[in-house]
Amino acid sequence: MAFNFDEIINRAHTGSVKHKLIKRDGQSEQTDRANPEMGEDRLLQLWVADMDFAVAEPIIEALHKKLDDRIYGYFTPEKSYFDSVVNWCGRRYDWEIDPDWIKLSPGVVPALYIMLPKLTKPGDKVIVQRPIYPPFVSSVQAAGCEVVSNDLVYDRENLRYEMDFDDLAEKAADPDCTAVILCSPHNPVGRVWTKEELTRFAQICLDNNVLIISDEIHCDLIYDDHKFVAMASISDEIADRTITCMAPSKTFNLAGLKSSQIIISNPELRQTFTDAIASVGLYGSNGFGPIATEAAYNHGEEWLEAAMTYIQDNYAFVRDYFAEHIPGIKVVKPEGTYLLWVDCRDLGYSQEELVSKLLDEAKIHFNDGVTFGPEGGEGFMRINIATSRLFLKQALDRMKRVLG
Ligand SMILES: Cc1ncc(COP(=O)(O)O)c(C=O)c1O
């Protein structure tokens, strides 16, 4: 089946966060400039992590069918939803899970905010690996805990990040350190951690009784020649100390349906999570999210594979464009996700100058690298490439004009 990822869908005035906000100086602006025909005035939105692609047809059909119910009362998913998650995990990651382990949450970020205060006590230390997706930091802080960063190590020559296991072992050995939030695959650096890396990481956590919260929301967006391994699939012992966060939201472009799965094999941890969700009054779920999830997991694989091919071609396009026209910018080699972490430090601009050139002069909205960590993010930008190649080309041409 052919899919048209080149299609340009006007997302202005659809409530799309990506096309509404310019997060600068706290200002927000409604932009209806989603059409490339608007030319140079159009603000190119290549930031927040959703795709500009239409979702797979079977998902749209399932949602239409749900609409035909004509009654949208309180909702809790049917068994077929849980089966679809179980089958997806078995088929894609060779991870056998029990349907009872699956708990729903209206998003992974809400799950972090809701569960952290119940799994830690104020003053505890929680490890993250910077540069990192900002809500990892804010959710830890909201729980009254201290953020400790086991910074990733950047190998600039090979455009690749690695974990610093010695530093992790040192930080995990602190008796106040009770949990770690792992980003697997990693946003923003695009690493798909190998089984060896994950096993070593987990062993350090087990040795020090540190709980692993493994955010695997990007787990289906994997480049060719890389393999995603679910942390909890490695061994029962690791699973027993792991809370896994997954969702179809990134994979199938369903973030606005607010439905994710938190998978927990340890009965006590699962009860803690269930109690945490109940403590904020979240019973049942949105009626459309699980319906879309089930259709995606049962019938969306072909679309996903085609989308990943398009995304990988977009990466190659961006990498080659920079090499030819703006050699001062290097793209960290992605192994997963549709986000590119780009190193602009050779251009010699301060972060403020860089952001201003891109946003004010080129009218392109990327994520400012500094928001992923003050040090590791300086000189970097994050580009969302899950968009039509035409938009990407426009963005790159504008960058060439102001930076090249
Ligand atoms: C690592 C990571 N976790 C969570 C989220 C958001 O999750 P949700 O929309 O389910 O709250 C994102 C979105 O970019 C992400 O990159």
CATH superfamily (homologous) name of the largest domain: Type I PLP-dependent aspartate aminotransferase-like (Major domain)
- Biggest sheet strand order reads 2-10-9-8-7-3-4
Strand percentage, roughly? 5-15%
Range of helix content: 25-40%
Low-pLDDT stretches: none
Q: End-to-end span in angstroms?
A: 39 Å
CATH architecture descriptor text of the largest domain: 3-Layer(aba) Sandwich
Say what the CATH topology of the largest domain is. Aspartate Aminotransferase, domain 2
- Class inferred from helices and paired strands: alpha/beta
Q: What is the overall pLDDT average?
A: 94
Q: Would you list the SSEs in sequence order as H and E?
A: EHHEHEHEEEHEHEHEEHHHEEHEEEH
Outline the fold blueprint.
Layout (H helix, E strand, L loop, with lengths): L43 E2 L11 H11 L11 H15 L8 E4 L2 H12 L5 E4 L5 H9 L3 E4 L3 E3 L4 E3 L2 H8 L4 E7 L11 H13 L3 E5 L20 H4 L2 E5 L13 E4 L3 H13 L8 H12 L1 H25 L4 E2 L7 E5 L7 H11 L2 E2 L1 E2 L11 E5 L4 H15 L1
Parallel strand pairs: 1-13, 3-4, 3-7, 7-8, 8-9
Antiparallel strand pairs: 2-10, 5-6, 9-10, 11-12, 12-15, 14-15
Helix pairs in contact: 1-9, 2-9, 3-4, 3-8, 5-6, 10-12
How is this structure best described in words?
With 404 residues, this protein is α/β, with parallel strands linked by helices. The protein has two domains: 124 residues, Aspartate Aminotransferase, domain 1, CATH 3.90.1150; 230 residues, Aspartate Aminotransferase, domain 2, CATH 3.40.640. The protein has twelve helices and 15 strands. A hairpin with a 4-residue loop joins strand 5 and strand 6. Pyridoxal-5'-phosphate binds next to helix 3.
